[in-house]
Design goal:
There is one protein chain. The chain is mainly α. 77% of the residues lie in helices and 1% in strands. The protein has helices at 2-27, 30-37, 44-65, 71-91, 95-127, 132-155, 160-178, 190-199, 206-234, 244-267, 269-289, 293-307, 310-324, 329-359, 362-378, and strands spanning 183-184, 404-405. The protein has a two-stranded antiparallel sheet with strand order 1-2. Helix 4 (71-91) runs antiparallel to helix 7 and helix 9 (206-234) packs antiparallel against helix 10 (244-267).
Length: 409
């Protein structure tokens, strides 16, 4: 059984990595996509907003789908769709092709994000200790790899399909092979799982976690969309130096998530979440007050170290709370609904900072996500384990709770 769990953990971590590569290849080549299809500056926000909206629909659909089929099956087939949609974006020429490819990408990403985190929550339950941050560390690593590949493609003037095709040819079959070892949660009859998920429709305890998820992604989207502009226009850096903060942010996110599980095991989830919120708020404060580019980059470094723990621990807390209520089937529903607020934060964050920057100042705009991330401190107790601990305690689950492999092992 230990071998089953280890293979399941490795295969799921690889899936997170693949998703990080695919998403980074899309978002970092947006100027190239815009030029290829002739998308105007006015139309570009419409296309960009459509992806997270459709991803939210995909996540909600997955909540219903996993009542009938295991999350491993949803993940197994949604990941190839994401990769093929990415390739279609790079290979198409007409606006209709771009619209259809992005629609497929968005819907599949929603299903993929939800099912990946469902499997991560159930695996953490089976392990009896915090491992959720390690999966999101794999995603961060994939993002760094994808952004690096995108830089190479842009630097050498490669066509989009030339950049995307080798990646898809390598990752798609590897992901399909790896999907044989996904591990689902404990088996339930479809009618039992559907009844439990339906009973969880009024899970009011999920609301604080939804707020934390939204705030975390407002912070993340602020860095990804505004760090370069802020460093160049506000802090007076060169164009080349303005590309550094996001890379620094991704590297520190990877580092923080790599060691974060150890912190959760030793200090507990509540302490780690509180520390992350305080460090992230300090990062925004440093960015807002920075006299120059180097101090600004220090602020973005702090943001990576602080924000990196919030999202994985929010998913983990949702799954844990569902298990503690005695309704394991509600865990998948909770994760799927929580995942929607990932996209809400992404949609709100960038326009919010942009509007405040234009109407007020970009320094002042950075104080708004700083205040929002401090809201996490108010709801930090929502991350506390109950009788069933795998944050600050060491109680392990019963053997009957250990998941089953998606290929029947």
């Amino acid at each position: 059984m230990t071998d089953v769990l280890r293979r399941g953990r490795t295969s799921l971590a690889f899936s997170f990595l693949v998703q990080g590569v695919a998403f980074a290849l899309l978002v970092t080549r947006i100027p190239g996509i815009q030029n290829r299809y002739g998308v105007s500056d006015g139309m570009l926000p419409v296309f960009l907003a459509a992806v997270p909206i459709l991803a939210g629909i995909g996540s909600v659909t997955t909540e219903r789908l996993v009542r009938r089929v295991p999350p491993s099956r949803v993940l197994r087939w949604s990941q190839p769709v994401v990769l093929l949609a990415l390739l279609a974006v790079g290979a198409g020429r007409q606006m209709a092709v771009l619209a259809l490819a992005l629609a497929a990408f968005g819907l599949a990403v929603g299903a993929l994000d939800a099912s990946m985190n469902m499997l991560g929550v159930s695996l953490q339950r089976a392990y009896g200790r915090s491992i959720m941050l390690s999966f999101h560390a794999a995603y961060s690593l994939g993002g760094i790899v994808g952004a690096s590949l995108a830089w190479v493609g842009a630097h050498y003037g490669l066509a989009l399909w030339v950049s995307y095709l080798p990646v898809v040819l390598v990752l798609l079959p590897a992901a399909l092979v790896g999907s044989r070892w996904y591990v689902d949660g404990e088996a339930q009859a479809p009618e039992e799982k559907g009844a439990e998920a339906g009973a969880g429709g009024g899970l009011k305890w999920l609301l604080p976690l939804c707020l934390v998820m939204t705030v975390a992604y407002i912070g993340d989207s602020t860095v990804s969309n505004w760090s370069a502009k802020y460093l160049q226009d506000v802090l007076g850096s060169s164009e080349q130096m303005a590309t550094v903060p996001y890379n620094v942010y991704m590297v520190t996110t990877l580092l923080g998530r790599t060691v974060g599980d150890i912190g959760v095991r030793r200090l507990g989830a509540v302490a780690v979440v509180r520390a992350g919120a305080l460090v992230a708020a300090a990062g925004f404060a440093v960015v807002a007050a920075a006299p120059g580019a180097w101090v600004g980059m220090l602020g973005f470094t702090l943001l990576g170290l602080g924000l990196c723990v919030l999202v994985p621990q929010t998913f983990a807390a949702a799954g844990r709370r569902a298990y503690e209520t005695g309704r394991p089937g509600a865990s998948d529903a909770a994760v799927a609904r929580l995942n929607v607020f990932n996209y809400v934060g992404f949609l709100v964050g960038s326009p919010l900072v942009g509007a405040l920057g234009d109407a007020w100042s970009y320094r002042g705009a950075m104080l708004v996500p700083m205040v929002l991330v401090l809201v996490t401190l108010v709801h930090a107790r929502s991350f506390a384990p109950g009788a069933d601990r795998y944050g600050g305690g060491h109680e392990r689950p019963r053997t009957a709770d250990v998941g089953r492999s998606s290929n029947g092992l």
